[in-house]
Write a structure and sequence with these properties.
Leucine-rich repeat, LRR (right-handed beta-alpha superhelix), about 290 residues, extended, single chain, six-stranded mixed beta sheet, alpha/beta
Length: about 290
């Protein structure tokens, strides 16, 4: 009887030791995948929420045409490249001329792309002045009597470093081909009140949509003789609450265009829309219409 109890006690001790060894082996194998204690206890760096990088304005743009956004965020070939690859080559005189004109437009768009370094060095107002005057436009700064423009030799006088006294008040495109991409160089102009894009053949509805979110204090806007502007682009101008004078041209003699102008006047009691027809010739200079 005593021998049986001793045997049972030995078996229980053996099983207990065996289970403890198995648990120890399992714990050792699991510890291989655990990070070191130094890494666990090391505090993680926290980003400062009040800091942000210089943005190019694309994510802040509250576009009205969100469904057809063309900010360039979509990766892959453009529609122009897809069409060019699927269509046969046109080696006729007209085809070569069309190809050459398209290449010149692409070069102008590339030349007007936003340069971050220029805005960081000069500030938004002087950077806009250099961008426009260099390409033939005219800029008027707050507190200065005349317009700043280049001479016959292409020279002009503007500071090459940041000067806080130079604040853009008025812009006259003066025949310059301003593209959608070039508008990114004309941002953060909080004191801009007068803007003339008269006769600019490259201004379209997309450009008006972008401008409506860029210039909160704009009072005068001349987009007459801009053939690509339709009533769809005019609808975005209701967001410029400070606008007092709008000059447009109804190229297609569209009732919808005229109705949109009337609706803009209803949205803002201070806004007066001067709608013209293509046959009307305005002999008054743009800078004299203030």
């Amino acid at each position: 009887m005593l021998a049986r109890q001793v045997t049972r006690l030995g078996l229980h001790r053996y099983q207990g030791c065996r289970n403890s060894l198995i648990l120890e082996q399992v714990s050792r194998s699991m510890s291989k995948y655990d990070p070191p204690e130094e890494e666990v206890q090391k505090p993680k760096p926290q980003l400062k929420q009040w800091r942000r990088e210089w943005d190019d304005g694309s994510y802040r743009l509250q576009t009205k045409f969100k469904v057809w956004d063309r900010t360039g965020k979509v990766e892959g070939p453009t529609m122009e490249k897809v069409v060019a690859l699927t269509q046969p080559w046109d080696l006729s005189a007209d085809g070569i001329k069309k190809w050459w004109n398209q290449k010149k437009i692409e070069a102008e768009k590339e030349d007007q792309k936003f340069i971050k370094l220029r805005h960081e060095i000069l500030g938004s107002n002087l950077a806009t002045g250099h961008f426009l005057v260099f390409r033939g436009a005219k800029v008027k700064f707050l507190g200065q009597p005349g317009w700043t423009e280049r001479d016959e030799k292409g020279n002009y006088n503007l500071p090459t470093s940041y000067v806080p006294d130079f604040v853009v008040e008025a812009i006259d495109i003066n025949g310059m081909n301003l593209y959608y991409e070039g508008l990114d160089n004309m941002r953060f102009l909080n004191e801009l009140k007068w803007l003339s894009l008269k006769g600019c053949k490259t201004i379209d509805d997309w450009c008006l949509d972008k401008m409506s979110s860029y210039y909160p204090n704009l009072e005068y806007l001349d987009i007459s003789d801009c053939e690509k502007v339709t009533e769809r682009g005019l609808e975005a101008l209701y967001r410029i609450h400070s606008l007092k004078k709008l000059i447009v041209t109804n190229h297609h003699v569209s009732p919808a265009f005229e109705l949109t102008c009337m609706m803009l006047e209803d949205c803002s009691s201070q806004l007066k829309v001067d709608m013209r027809l293509p046959a009307e010739n305005d002999s008054v200079p743009a800078e004299a219409q203030t």
